[in-house]
Structures
1.
Amino acid sequence: MTSISSVPAVELNDGNSIPQLGFGVFQVPDDQAYDAVTEALKVGYRSIDTARIYDNESGTGRAIADSGVAREDLFVTTKLWNDDQGYDETLRAFDASLDRLGLDYLDLYLVHWPVAAKGRYLDSFRAFQQLKRDGRVRSIGVSNFTADNLTRLVDAVGETPVLNQIELHPGFSQAHLRAVHADLGIVTEAWSPLGQGTMLANETIRAVADAHGRTPAQVILRWHVQLGNVVIPKSVTPERIASNIDVFDFALTADDMAALASLDRTDGRIGPDPDTFG
Ligand code: NDP
């Protein structure tokens, strides 16, 4: 069984750190989230990624409480939904999320989408800064922010988000935004790291997997790890939950990395466009 010690920690720009591989629960109903998170914690995951809009903070929180894993060994992330943006609204939404999770502090709070047209992400992030000063959240970051959104935020609030959680998989590998993150000292966290499963039948990936005696999912997750991404694959299937974290005892070659990089497509996005969503 994979143990926590085999998942490296990635340092954040505020001095905290996040496990490089965690567990996502998007599109998992609350009861099933309880079972999936319970399984994930059992096989060694220590980072869990949920969101207010997933409607499974309660099941996630119950699984955490029942797991017996010490709170200080866990890294729990949730996200501020678009309708809750604004300073006071954010403070209220945070209280409600923390309550559903049954926690007394959060490790990471993310602005889920910029919704730039509504112009409220700066006030939302200022509320995040207050929550951090109050000791209620350890680290604050964003999700689905473009390079323009990031520079505007940093200029306006004088603080750099610790990470930006963005759509990223071999079919949409976001080289430009990753370079912007590196310049700004922002960690890249990949959502839909497996392309929601769509990348798993790809022939190039299958060939690399066969060469290493690994599954396509393990090869994709290993590619993320070697790029330096933080990654949060989702599964409700126990054997997949276990195998997805088992990627720290092999390495892809430079040729393998290049083969996966060649799958990038400018139109490879499978989720919404952050410039227009919300
Ligand atoms: P993933 O890329 O993690 O893919 C999940 C899909 O792949 C599921 O259908 C799962 O099936 C399948 N799968 C997982 N592992 C394997 C495996 N080893 N072999 C075969 N199939 C596999 O998609 P997500 O969209 O869920 O992204 C991961 C996480 O990212 C989310 O859960 C969420 O936490 C976050 N996210 C954040 C967003 C944002 O806007 N910030 C947007 C989208 C996601 P099954 O479950 O049936 O096993």
2.
Amino acid sequence: MRKVTVPDLTQKKAASEKIVMVTAYDAPTAALIDASDVDVILVGDSLGNVIQGRPNTIGVTMDEMVYHTKIVSRRTKRALLVGDMPFMSYQASNQQALTNASRFLKESGAESVKLEVNEQYLDTIGILAKAGIPVMGHIGLCPQSLHLMGGYKVQGRGEGEAHRLMRLAKDVEERGAFSLVLESIPQRLAKSITESIKIPTIGIGAGPHCDGQVLVFHDLIGLTEEPMPRFVKKYANVREVMLKALAEFSREVKEGTFPGQEHYYD
Ligand code: KIV
């Protein structure tokens, strides 16, 4: 088993090898993903929607992120572990960003942090990177800016916006980020960005030309209830399997066939 490191992602881009990233929020899921050949585990603030049942990620706290990252890290031995900085954990000041980003590394076992960024947070990336904290940037559709964007909408449409995102991607690289998530932008723009920067891009709803792809674990295994965004592909229907198991358990308890002799003690 070879540990995936931050420099490995850069090398993968140089070698034209695709990067695979998946979210995890708990220990058993982390163990499962770690046993696969997925490169990166992201403890995303999407846990607000996926685990906490919130309508969006805005309410997720730093303590919750540290808790989930800590339990994921206990079962992550091989994959690179990224902790997602939640809303208002870095926006107030660079000092706040340093304090919270270092909590991820010191308290939770994360090896890097992800930040949803716009032009205002370029300095923050530089300060974290100089302090030795590997930063994954995230541009395009940034769910923490949901209200500003007026909903979950494809970003970077139109020449002006596309130009802005291209500039932003280059600036994120220049400030020292080691990788960049591109969310819900036109595939042609994602291709141009990917070809214009040396750090790897990891796409979600950004088409096939990114250096890697990320999906939310619960979406890709088919545990999330429909409808799901267009960019999700369901690789299994775990929800159906689980519902069937629950229905069978319930039926057997009610008809008295569970527990059977082999399930109890004399
Ligand atoms: O929070 C998250 O899970 C994310 C990924 C979907 C990129 O930001």
